[in-house]
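Appendix B. Raw example, untouched.
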Amino acid sequence: MAFNFFSARRPETLASQAMIATSHPLSTAAGMEILSSGGNAVDAAIAAVAVQCVVDPLMTGIGGDCFALYAPKGGEVMALNGSGRAPAAATIEALNAAGLTDEIPQTSPHAVTIPGAVSAWCLLHREHGRLPLTQIFKRAIGYAKNGFPITPRVAADWAENAELIAQDAHAAAVFLPQGQVPKVGDVMMQPLLAERLSEIAEHGPDGFYKGETAAKMVAHLQSLGGLQTEEDFHAGADQAFWTKPISAKYGNYDIYECPPNGQGLCALIIMRILSKFDLGPEVSDADRVHLHAEATKLAYYHRDALIADPEDCEGVAELLLSDTVIDALAARIDMTKALPPALWDEPEHKDTIYLCVVDEEGNTLSFINSIFHGFGSTRLDPQTGVLFHSRGASFRLIEGHPNSIAPFKRPMHTIIPGLAVEDGKPVMPFGVMGGQYQAAGQAAFISALVDQGLDLQAAMDQPRSFAFGDELQVEETLPAEVCAELERRGHVIKQMPSPIGGSQAIRIGDGILHGGSDSRKDGCALGY
């Protein structure tokens, strides 16, 4: 099929041996350098995410969490849970006593669970990496110490969060130099972050979770009223763990996700509902968007009610993916009329990075890292340079709720890597960034590939929509006549001022690697 070079859309990236796709060009370049230097998919992914923690600090960081799906060549798909746990003293009673009764605000020190990303990176590297962390972190350390240029999408997102950053003097000192929002092309440095990355490279997880660095982070959080202790951080060094992924069929693919506490289950529910309907190329855009919106409402309602720490929702994946439940949910959809809004009570958030790698040996990695909201909690420790995430804001302060806060508990997570398997072989690591949108975005992406026969880049570039709360959020590229028809069916249309989410994917087939990287972001897919 001929490509329209006047469309302003980038084509897929093609390579034959190895490939990496990220949402930032410097991250992709760092991963490519590692692949070209004898590193494997794990080494390249860690190099890329470490760089992105420096050059895209509002989206991710070492003070955040991580999930991954890893398929070593010839091996089974494995799920890595790198989500952090609540402090030992975190109880509903303790937070009520601190004045929190309805929800945990983004900027509260109680929104800071013990970061899990470093634990996850080091576990993944220790068991499956090849090159030393000192080599893997070299580019990230260099950018943090010597500076990096601000790219267009990063600059735009940075500006959106300026007022929030300004509320924390320590974060403002780093991210608003001279009180100004960095512009495209401005060079930024984070020398303290360079020191932290060097410590991790030399000492592994102990360089972050123990010793002087941990003591300083704890002291700062406690000065804000946090319940974190040095013992909590010490225990965090090995909090990442391997678990068995969950999966569901869509077309010829078996779609693999990390199990709860991630919302990958929600993505599978949407896909299972969509599989009950005809979504072929002849289906109208209005029908396609409507159906996706209705499936999203049904799936997210169950997500918010039931997904939580693995120990608190045992068996929920099997139940919600059963034919009985899926058939009942699908039967609730009326193609002529929108369902009433689901009972949303999750806060909106949209800040995460996703990347994927396939190396020369065929090892395949789907990898996601996040600090939750833009600039996480905005709480930056001035002695270590660590910006803490806000993942604990997902916890409920409701007695008996599966996702209620409790000591050592992991909150429900929105960040989800995906991996498509065909005939028992991994054929496509993929992911969609965008906070709440991720599960819905994965379903829309997979449907575009399977039902419409689009290539990776075309599937990513389609106009996006998202049924969130009592609105149907749409990008400006969705045609006006489609929006009018959706309004006629009862949807409340909200035109979004900025793009919805972002995505990366690599498809393996016939000796060729096909890469896609969302044009809504600054990144790219590269291979050789």
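End of appendix B.
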